Amino acid sequence: MIEFTLWDILRNLLLATRWTVLLSLVSFIGGGAVGLGLLFLRISKRKAFRALAKYYIELFQGTPLLMQLFIAFFGLGLFGIDVPAWLAAGLALTLWSAAFLAEIWRGCVEAVARGQWEASASLGMGRLQQMRYVILPQALRVAIPPTVGFSVQIVKGTALTSIIGFVELSKAGTVVTNATFQPFTVYGLVALIYFALCWPLSKSSQILERKLNVAHRNH
């Protein structure tokens, strides 16, 4: 029987952590891009666009992420499309993240005083110009803390991708546990690594929220 030292266990978990971090980054960036598009649809003057974005957001917020992962991985297989686990994981997390980010950002845009819309419209600005030069710069200040805070949920959400065979931190924990028969040690280290990833993000969100609120009150 092969003996595993604490360093052997930790090294294997850290190797898998790279994929957790990479998947989190891809999901956050991809979700942000899709979410920005949804935001523009959500606040569009056209009722059909608003309805489309609303139903998308309700669908992805109202169904479990686990189910979305299953559909992305197994659903496309019904049409003869072979989907790698990493692609299904990235796609599902991106679409799921987009729904939440779009709604977070919509609330931030709506927090901007209505007079800002009216003032920019009186200057002859179009809708896109209003968003680019007047509304988004102000909404950004409000959006940073909750956006950073939501990134924690994305990191923790990656753990569910182990169910479709993507080898990230939690999946590696299961594999290493089966090899070492040391579940307490392995999962204790897994928990510590997740904490090391998530705590700085949570703390950053709190600090940013305090600083930006103080700046807003002083302004």
Compose a concise summary of this entry.
The protein is an all-alpha fold.
Helicity level, as a percent range?
A: over 70%
Q: Give the radius of gyration.
A: 21 Å
How much strand content do the residues show?
under 5%
CATH superfamily: MetI-like
Number of domains: 1
Please report the total strand number as a whole number. Answer: 0
Straight-line distance between termini: 67 Å
Following the backbone from N to C, one meets helices and strands in this order, namely HHHHHHHH
**What's the tally of helices?**
8
The outline comes out as flat
Text of the CATH class: Mainly Alpha
CATH overall fold name: MetI-like fold
- How does CATH name the architecture? Orthogonal Bundle
* Uncertain stretches: none
Rounded mean pLDDT score: 90
Biggest beta sheet attributes: none
Class derived from helix and strand content: mainly alpha
Pfam families: BPD_transp_1 (PF00528)
GO molecular function: transmembrane transporter activity
Organism: Rhizobium leguminosarum
InterPro entries: AA_ABC_transptr_permease_3TM (IPR010065), ArtM/GltK/GlnP/TcyL/YhdX-like (IPR043429), MetI-like (IPR000515), MetI-like_sf (IPR035906)
Protein model, in words:
The structure is a single chain. This protein is an all-alpha fold and 219 residues long. It has a single domain (6-218), classed as MetI-like fold (Orthogonal Bundle), CATH 1.10.3720.10. The protein is 81% helix and 0% strand. The chain is built from eight helices and no strands. It has helices at 6-42, 47-61, 65-75, 85-110, 114-122, 127-157, 169-180, 183-218. Helix 2 packs across helix 4 and helix 6 packs antiparallel against helix 8. The longest helix is centred in the first third of the chain and has 37 residues, at 6-42. The termini are far apart. The model has no long low-confidence stretch (mean pLDDT 90).
